[in-house]
Structure formats: C-alpha cells, structure tokens
Amino acid sequence: MKKSAIGYEFEHIQWYDFFNAYEKGVQKMEKHVQQFVQDLEFGDKQRRYDAFLQLMEITKEQVDWAYDVWETLIHYLSHKDNHMRAIAAQLLCQLAKSDREKRIVQDFKHVLEVTKDKRFVTARHSLQSLWKIGLVGEEQQSIVMEGLRARYEECIHEKNTTLIRYDIIVSLKKWYDVKSDNKIKDLANTLIELEEDEKYQKKYRKEWRGLL
Fold first, then answer.
1. Are residues 60 and 42 in contact, defined by beta-carbon separation less than 8 angstroms?
2. Are 208 and 174 contacting, i.e. CB atoms less than 8 angstroms apart?
3. Distance between CA atoms of 28 and 49, rounded to whole angstroms?
4. Looking at the structure, do residues 82 and 16 belong to the same domain, yes or no?
5. For residue 161, what are the domain limits?
6. InterPro entries, per this entry (predicted)?
7. pLDDT(28) > 90
8. Which of 19, 151, 169, 171 is most exposed, with the fewest beta carbons within 10 Å of its own?
C-alpha cells in the first residue's frame, strides 16, 4: 500500500463493508447497479468499460447511493491504473448532483488534481467533466470556476496548453448552455483574452458562436 498525495493508493479496494452493508439493508443500490460498481474493480477491461458506461448513464439522474461509493471513488483517483483514475473523476463529477452533504466542495481539489494527470488522455477526460459539478449549486459553481480559471492560467507551462485551454472554453460553453449564467460567459471571455496567440483566440471564440 503506497501513500499518495490524497491518501493511500490501493491495488484493490476492500469491499467487505460495502457488501456487508448491502446484506443488512443499508445499501440502497439495486443489484444490477451493485454489479456494475463491482465490475469497475474486478471485471476485465471490457466489463469495466461497459460498467462505466452504464453507471454514467444511471447517474445522469440523482441517485440515493452516492455515499456508498464516494470514498471508494476518492481512493480510485490515485489508483495505479490510469483508466480507473479517469473513471473515478468522471463518476464523481456526475454524482455531484446526488451529493446532498456537499462533500465535493472538500474533495474537489482531488478531482482537479487528476486534470494534471501524467497520462494526458486521463487528464483530458477528467477536465471535460468538471463543469457538471458547477450545475449543482452556488458553492459548487464557485469552486469549479476558480478551478478552471487556475488550470487555464497554469497550463501555459505544460505540453498541451492549447488543448487544455480549448477543453476549458468548450466546457464553459456547455455549462452556459445549461445554466445561462452570465458569470460563466464572463469567465470564458476573460480567459480567451488571456490567450496571446490570435489564431487560438479566434478558435476559442468560435466555440461560443457569436455570444462573446
């Protein structure tokens, strides 16, 4: 067991308490959902991917079992397998709407860290999901806006600067399309103005289709 920046990194999460709770009637998951969660850790690559897709579909709506898997997903953010890190980040973003206790406010920094993952595909999938957290409430909106602003500014020193910035601008547009909050539009405009390359400024503005 290895110490990571956000806790302990487990090769396999211990599921004893998880299933014990289910047997006692505390677990709110339906059996097929429970199987999907189990397949994330113990299934082969195809079963894991299929389970992930199913869980992403289910969690488009609020669910009452978010806290049954929350800490497990937090641990997965530092899993040795980059696919598991990406899965955890995306599911936590999706589960934010079911997070009545606002745990994501404290745990957001851990999700944000995955947007800097050494595997860029993992970082990118995580970054593209962050805006969903901002749909939930004012406090969540604030931390996401600050997180995206920070990533946009600090990525100037990273290898994939233009892709990161593009993903952030596109994410803000998706967010604005749902919420129609001028704070989101203003942030997008502010960030685009920071881009010194006129070619990329035009590319980013194009995603907003004349709204900026």
1. no
2. no
3. 23
4. yes
5. 128-212
6. ARM-like, ARM-type_fold
7. no
8. 19
132 and 103 in a common domain: no
Name the average pLDDT for the chain. Answer: 88
Distance CA 84, CA 103 (A): 20
Token pair, residue 20, equals: 């014990």
Tell me the residue ranges of DSSP E strands in the chain: 2-4, 7-9
Reported as a single tens digit per residue, the pLDDT across 4-23 is 434 334 444 444 444 444 44
Task: Name the E strands within 20-72.
Answer: none
Q: Which residues contact 196 (CB under 8 A, 6 or more apart)?
A: none
**Distance (Å, whole) CA 56 – CA 182:** 28
Distance CA 182, CA 211 (A): 11
Total structural domains in the chain? 2
Question: What would the two tokens of residue 7 be?
Answer: 């806790």
